[in-house]
Amino acid sequence: MEQALLRTPARHKLESIILSSDDEVWQPTRRLVDLAIRAASRAADISFPDLDSRKAKEPRWYRTWPGEHYRLLAALVADLEALTVIEIGTWTGMGTLSIASALPPGGRVVTFDIVPWNSLKRSWFRQADFADGRIVQHLADVTKPEGMEPYRSLFAEADFIFIDAPKDGVTEQNFIDTLGALTLPKNPIVMFDDTRVLNMIHIWRQLKRPKLDITSFGHWSGTGLVDWNGKAGTRKSLAAE
């Protein structure tokens, strides 16, 4: 595998695994399929003039599509007309600002991290971004039940949840378990980043909810959508009957 990586030219390389689909029983809902098709088409026309106007603190990944997920993020938020978006993992804020650009009037994106945005030298944020309440950062670990407890009512309002956590093989699973214990009446769409990174493959594979891999229109390292409350049929066995 190392030799294959070495002889394949690319700016950034990660090891991954190819897995069969016939024994992956959790299928997407029609809602997910239709949403993905609309959002992929919409993403082709999205631009980010606000980000373009800011001094670059890191490469402008949001301009890359397909390959990066920022235009798809904005397209999904716009298509869903999501009034409450929750992001797990603020980092430099490129994703947060991409989401905010597509919010409808009265919409908000609430981003969670354990590190304040202004402690990062590469942050894309300005203090003014938080003035009108469209962007809010909470410093809390909501991957654990005790951290989630103060925010249960917020998550009950979520239309869209974006998970861009550390990919350490633990944090995302903890969040899935914690989120699964909540009642989410607005039937949110949940988007996972980096689903093809080695530490994430098992977590994505064993997620027992209607889901759809849309990496071709999202992040090169893997993008997946989940219809969190959806009911989907399971794939029929290919075994001879």
Automatic annotation (TrEMBL):
Protein name according to UniProt: O-methyltransferase family 3
Keyword Transferase listed: yes
Domain of life (superkingdom): Bacteria
Sorted UniProt keywords: Methyltransferase, S-adenosyl-L-methionine, Transferase
Pfam families per UniProt: Methyltransf_3
Source species of the chain: Mesorhizobium amorphae CCNWGS0123
GO molecular function: O-methyltransferase activity
Keyword Methyltransferase listed: yes
GO biological process, one term: methylation
